[in-house]
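Page 42, continued from yesterday. The earlier attempt failed because a stray header line got pasted into the input along with the sequence. Redoing it now with the clean sequence only.
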Amino acid sequence: MRIEGIFRAEHGRILATLIRLLGDIDVAEEALQEAFAAALEQWPAAGTPANPVAWLVSTGRHKAIDRLRRSALLVQKQEEIARHIELSGGDEETPMPEDRLRLIFTCCHPALASEAQVALTLRTLGGLSTEEIAHAFLVPAPTMAQRLVRAKAKIRTARIPYQVPPDDALAERLDAVMAVVYLVFNEGYAASFGARLVRHELCDQAIRLGRMLVELLPGHPETQGLLALMVLHDSRRETRLDGSGDIVLLEDQDRASWDRAQIEEGAALVEAALRAGARPPGPYALQAAIAAVHAQAPTAADTDWAQIAALYGVLARVHLVLM
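This time it went through. Structure tokens are written below.
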């Protein structure tokens, strides 16, 4: 895999580990950029390391410590880094699944404004540049940069912990994380502003984050339901707009052009979520079940409307309970 591909695929995992090691998002982001710059300089001649992720984490960590040691103004931060490294033990440079969970729960902390949660999640775990996020949400890059600066400052000043919430708070905090991920997806699937009605890059980022949640929290059926819902909706992406860029209604879409692999994946996720979840199922699993019934109907006329009506009835009762 090329260095650029590794940056895109592994950005969130490497950054999450560096934040754990260094104790600060800004310091970790600078370390990651320096590590990738070193890779661009060294790998073409020396070859790609056997474990590029471990190489980048180790290089970033050492470059950050060297830089901080040279700066008398950052003595306090240097002490914090030393404490983090001491606490992390012998395997401190090994990326752990919990690192990405810590990061997404930090980015989606309720102390941060919703738009800050979205921007910070896309920046850190999605690996998008400030300019890319600004372009996706049609705001000036300096405005988005300030939004990110304020979010990171809030994390520092409010001492938002870099940790997975304890069991008694996990369900509520996970709901907030899933809401952010689905907000990103919806902004791509049916944009609330701008000339483009669909922004595929945001849908792709949301699905990527959804896959991460399923991977890291396999015992939570609603993460499967969320991923299923996004994948099933995304299976119709090529048929949702006509040649003029206008929305095509569901019943008028060319079902032969729907992505069958995504439909099969989504249906399997729905089945797993409904089978493993509580009774009644959660709202994401129920919405995904409705989307699966639509997606699996050969034609609009063959849609099982009785099943859809029954699912909407359960969904309405679940929403009443959650209110």
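Notes: The two ends are 47 Å apart (CA to CA).
Reminder to self: strip header lines before submitting.
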